[in-house]
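Input protein
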Amino acid sequence: MSEAYFPVGPGLGTEENFLSLDDILMSQEKLPGRAESSLPRLAVLLGQGAGSAESIPEGSKLEIPLWLAKGLHDSKRRIISVELPKIYKEAWRTVFSADANVVDLHKMGPYYYGFGSQLLNFENPENPEIAQTILQTFVARFRRIMDSSQNAYNEDTSVLVARLDQLERALFQVGQKGLNDFQSWEKGQASQITASSLVQNYGKRKLTEVDG
């Protein structure tokens, strides 16, 4: 029986995949910002007016969805400026560098890695530090996530995944599937062990790059 929906993975780095549900949801996350010029007919869209013709005055503080912030951001015209969400600021970067495993990423933002990578599209002097923290956080948390996924067979895993962001939850599920497939094979309930869809998709992507 074929699946009704074939999941599409998120984009990589600063790129988005508009066929990915995760990327679509991530693009709705909001950024704090400021209107550097008047924004005609955007008051309703940003929840700051009742009429479709109302404009947002210059200097107004904003909460802007990522997709709209990227569309309005123009370094030459200075339509809007964006600020860093608190979890990407220096104080939190210090916490991550001390022990990234103590942070509840899902509570702070369910798309920590993807959203943080998208912030690099905006000109900010802290971008190198943000990129480094995102990478170091992933590396620091990866082993614990995979160890947990490999040591939870036929158990309730809700507590284990509660503090993970969406990317980490996907990795946990890959680890769980690998464990379950191995257990089935070891018990003679499966004829062979197959590569995970994550590995297969990566292989297809590499072949496409070579052919291109």
Observations:
- The beta strands are 30-35, 61-65, 80-82.
- The longest strand covers residues 30-35.
- DSSP finds nine helices and three strands in the chain.
- The radius of gyration is 21 Å.
